Amino acid sequence: MFKGMPKAFWIGCGIMYGWNFLFMFLEMVIPGLPLMKLFGVPAAYIYAMILGLWLINVLVAWYFYAAEEAREAK
């Protein structure tokens, strides 16, 4: 099923799932992490909503596009 998938796919999956598992682990280890205040708002709004749902997905989508353009040019 995954045979022949481009390297960019695996890098993108590693970035997105790595971010998810990193903060899942940190939430389990650090007591009260999601509700800690960071810049006046709960930390989960920053690392999950802004970075995790918006910024990382935009960067990975741009990387997918750039990698495919480079592969086609080659």
Short description:
About 75% of the residues lie in helices and about 5% in strands.
What can you see in these coordinates?
The structure is a single chain. This protein has helices spanning 7-29, 43-73; strands at 37-38, 41-42. With 74 residues, it is mainly alpha-helical. The chain has a domain at 10-18 and 37-74. The chain has a two-stranded antiparallel sheet with strand order 1-2. The longest helix is centred in the C-terminal third of the chain and has 31 residues, at 43-73. The two termini are 25 Å apart. The relative contact order is 0.15. The mean pLDDT is 92.
Secondary structure elements and pairings:
Layout (H helix, E strand, L loop, with lengths): L6 H23 L7 E2 L2 E2 H31 L1
Antiparallel strand pairs: 1-2
Helix pairs in contact: 1-2
Q: Reading side by side through the largest sheet, how are the strands ordered? A: 1-2
Count of DSSP-assigned helices: 2
Q: Which range best describes the helical content: under 10%, 10-25%, 25-40%, 40-55%, 55-70% or over 70%? A: over 70%
Low-confidence stretches: none
